[in-house]
Structure formats: C-alpha cells, structure tokens
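We emphasize that the prediction below concerns an isolated chain of 497 residues; any contacts that depend on oligomerization or on bound cofactors are therefore not represented. The input was used exactly as deposited, without trimming of termini.
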Amino acid sequence: MQRKIDITELVLRDAHQSLLATRMALEDMVPACEDIDAAGFWSVECWGGATFDSCIRFLNEDPWERLRTFRRLMPNSRLQMLLRGQNLLGYRHYEDTVVDKFVEKAAENGMDVFRTFDALNDVRNVERAIAAVKRVDKHAQGTICYTISPLHTVEGYVKMARDLMDLGCDSLCIKDMAALLKPQPAYDIVKAIKEELGQDVRIHVHCHSTTGVTLVSLMKAIEAGADAVDSAISSLSLGPGHNPTESLVEMLENTGYTTDLDDDRLTRIRDHFATIRPKYSHFMSSITGVETEIFKSQIPGGMITNMEDQLRQQGAGDKRKEVMEEVPRVRKAAGYPPLVTPSSQIVGTQAVFNVLMGEYKVLTAEFADLMLGYYGETIGERDAKVIAQAEAQTKKGPITVRPADLLTPEWEELCTQAQALEGFDGSDEDVLTHAMFPKVASGFLKARADGPQSVAKDPNEVAAATGGSSGADHVRTPIKYQVTVNGTSHDVSVAPA
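Result of the prediction step, given as a token string:
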C-alpha cells in the first residue's frame, strides 16, 4: 500500500519571491488558479513573506484584495501564508493586540494555514501568533528555521519541536531557507521528532534548491516519515527557488509513496508560468545555477548578492571575499542566529561595516538591538565586548524578557494614524497595512484608486533594453537601518536577502 505524501505548491508566493523579486502581478496568477485548485495539493502558499510589502510598494495592489481573490478562485484549496511571528509581515515586533488583529483579519479574508516562524528560533516570539491562529480555528503550523553551527543539534531541533507542539500547533515545518539541509540531517531530524513526539505529529519540510542537494533531502525526509513537502511548478523552480513539483512526483514513482497530483493540471500550470516568467526577466535573480559555497560560508544566496550590492555602492567591490569571511564571525558574536529575514540582513550589513570601517567600530541600530536581546534570545552566548559597545551606543541595557513584553498597546494609536491618511477606507485591513509599512502605505492608500500597476514587460523589450542582463540590481526591497557615527544618526537603505 502506498503512503500519501502531501504537497504544498509555492508558485503563487515563495517561487516568484525567490526568482522574480516578488514582482508577479495578480493578473498573471489568476489564469492558473482553476488548475491549481483542482490539482490535488494539500495547500497553496499564496500570501505572506514579502508579497504584502511588494504589493503596496511596487504594484499598487491591495494585498488584502489579492487574498480575497485567491479565496474566490480556489474554493477547494487550503490557502497558506508565511508569518514572521511577532514581526507579522514587517521588520519590527508588534504589540500583542496587533498580532491578534492581523491574524483575525487574515483568517476573515480567507487564510487557512499560518506557517509561523521566528528569525532567531525564539519560541516566545511565535507564542502569541499561534494562540491567535487557534482562537480563529485555523491551522497553526509551528516552524523551525534550519541552520547549522557548532551549537545546532538534532536534539535541539527535537526540543524546539516539542516546545512548538506544546503551544498547540497543528503541524510542524522544518524550514530550510538557505538550502543547507543535507539528506542525512533531513532524515535524522524528521525521524527523531517522530520517535520522540509520536508518529501522529505532522511534519512538513520546506527546502530551497540553491545548493543542488535538497531534492534528495526531501526524499530522505519522506523516508523518515515526513507527511508533506513543499515544491514549485517546474517553470518557476530551481536556482535560489525550490525543487520542481513534477520532478518530485516522478521521483516518488514506484517507491511506495504517492502524491496523487493530477498530471494534466500540473502540465497546464507549468505551461502558463512558462509564458509568464520571461515578462519578469529584468527582476531575475543573478543566481541561476548551483551555489555549494553556501555550505562553507552558511550564507544564503540572496544574502550574498545583497552584500555584493552594498560593496559596489561603496566602491569596495574587491572586498567581497573579506566580507564573506566576516559573516560567520559576526554570526558567532551574535549567538549563531539562523540567517533569515530580518537576521540575515542585520548580520550581513554588520559584516560589511566591519570590513569597511573596522571591527565593530560602528554598529547598526538593528545589530545593537540584536546583541542586546531586543529581537529575542539566540542559541549561543553573545560576545560580551560587543554587548558593551551596543549598550554604550544605544544608551540602554540588555533584556532577557520576551521583546514584545516591553511594548505598550498600540492598536488605537495605529487607528488614529491611519484615519489621517488620504485614501483610508475605514477598515481594520487598511490600519494593518499602515502598521506593516507606514511610510509606504501612505502613498499606496492615496494611489490605490488608480488600480494595480504591473511591472511586467514584453520579453523582447527587456532583452533590447538590458542587452540580456538579468537586472539583478533591481531584485530586492530596501529595509531602512539607522546607523550612528560619531554621535550623528544616519538613515541607510539596504536591500533584503
């Protein structure tokens, strides 16, 4: 008897986020929704991550309307999103009532599965969001960000899995955002969780394909008992993206496992996005092949290109090797955090500063906060000397409490701020849009009536304009950092990995 392996299809979110800078317009997704809805996927990831930001920053598209559209067009599917725990979809911690309200409205607008993670794997930072998901009777998926360091062990991941399940999670996800999960660790972690927590604990495995080994990792995870894996339709897969859905289906043939996906539907989905992808070639990631260097540096591919951009802007393109060598040292000083948004940007930018200005001569405000515990706890001890410098620079001490415990209720204030914005429609959704990205939301709400603005181009036009360039310099959405130099504060924009 064959064991059913469930598949989460990523083409409507992480696939185009990883390959096309999250720039795909809703109009280019709508024609595929009927086939996606009927193909047999366990869930369809279509929201969260960077999609919310990209909708209002680049596409003049209401992300809430995108979600409602997916709900209408895929009535038979579980819709899934990626939620950054206490950060929601932004880059700071939000007070608990804002977390509650966001989850409530996401569920009301059509979301079913909330894959919730914290960049530091600090379970305290996902506790409120998971409780909020359970309160609205939706699927709470607790997430373990996979990384490697001298301190990360199978036993540690099992403990985190237990902590997440103790919060009431309906399932677990092992999230490998940098394609670091090799086949044997994939097997060992899944098997250990199943043995320690019980075979009925549902485990999903999410891997990027950047290093070229993770299709095998998915197979080993399945052999160890994984219940579901993520993939992306082949025409939007590989590179820094994900393993191809069709390849996964073929790999499992005659193995005792089956996905029960509809091959004809998959072919139509593939063909649709094959025609769409060239329209966004000017946003294509510069990583098109395999990057095994990540196993040595532990730096995700997107983070590498991000740092290269920073160095070029400073006229220091020749410092790439030095920065690559500095990142692991900065990560060690910070207690070995996983490198995922926003920790990857914080660590990477500090490594650039160390190389260009001297070791910890200047700390970004975000790195100082990371060292002082304002993003949460890390698995390892932080460097005491750098902590002292962070204290001196910020004029505040380190904390050990959950960061959100220091926040005061802010929902009413956010409502007041949103009401003053031109184009505000009076909805809680608009208040939340303002809360996520206040500087961007004001312009979006004002211009929303103009309708969505696709950034896709005719493929021939792109080729002529760029000479075949991938346009990778346009790939990333900036994040604002505040840097203090000699007592003077400066705003710095850095594109996320």
